[in-house]
Amino acid sequence: MKLAWEKLQSFDRRWLFLAMGLAIALPLMFEFTMPFTTSPRVRALYDEIETLPPGTQVLLAIDYDPASKPELEPFARAVLRQLLLRRCRVVLMTLWDKAPPIVMALIEDIIEGEHDRHRGLFEGRDDPPLRYGVDYVFFGFKEGKEIVIAGLGQSFRQIYPADYRERPVGQLPIMNGINRLSDFPLIVEVSAGFPGTKEWVQQVVTRYGLRYAAATTSVSVTELSPYYPRQMFSLVGGMRGAAEYEKLVGQVGLATRGLNVLTVGHVVIVLAITMGNVIYFKTRKRKRGAR
Predict the structure, then answer these.
(1) Best-predicted range by mean pLDDT among 34-48, 110-124, 169-183?
(2) What does the DSSP 8-state code read for residue 37?
């Protein structure tokens, strides 16, 4: 037995690298869900959307870039699916110059692509096709940061006189009755930094009493937590929060798979550290006895 512990001291570390590689690859290759609970601040947004009547106009601000896409896009996809399945009318916008291609990909994948292939979004349902300008619209990127946010609170139509296709806002049925931010029953923002959640809260949320929820990166949760639950009734933090939201909407997506990778990877690390310490103390005790 003592000899076995000494042999383990010369354990080939490449086996540990292989174990970590499998811990990353297997959760991505096979669809399964590790057990976890959903927090009240994530569930609050899900429950809010489930109570919205069909036809409700919701503003969805996509404020992130490709660097933060892996952490935030799973939530953006999940919440967009939920809104459309509830037949809410979704108004999309962004204050980040690198975000328009991301928003266009969301529209093509979730709204246009899946419906055209008769799968995914309305599978098993007899819903009519989603129409641009009626059920959803994208207003594109607007430069100006906090100035734009403050302006939207006063007049949405002055800041965005037309959508990204240059169609005047007056010709978009989805915008009927919408003149300023306070006309939206719900505003959801997916934020990776500046301008983002903090600027929305400072410029318009408190001033106009908006019904506002945000999803942000994990590193921003601590800074934004004081705004919950008064200024924002829901705060979805990082990949963990996105995985919780996927669980609520009944969809195993990238966030759930990413959380599986983190969980299995951490289990491997803990086991390796524990085993290393056991080997160290066992062999040290034997060396002391030999003296």
Answers:
(1) 169-183
(2) P
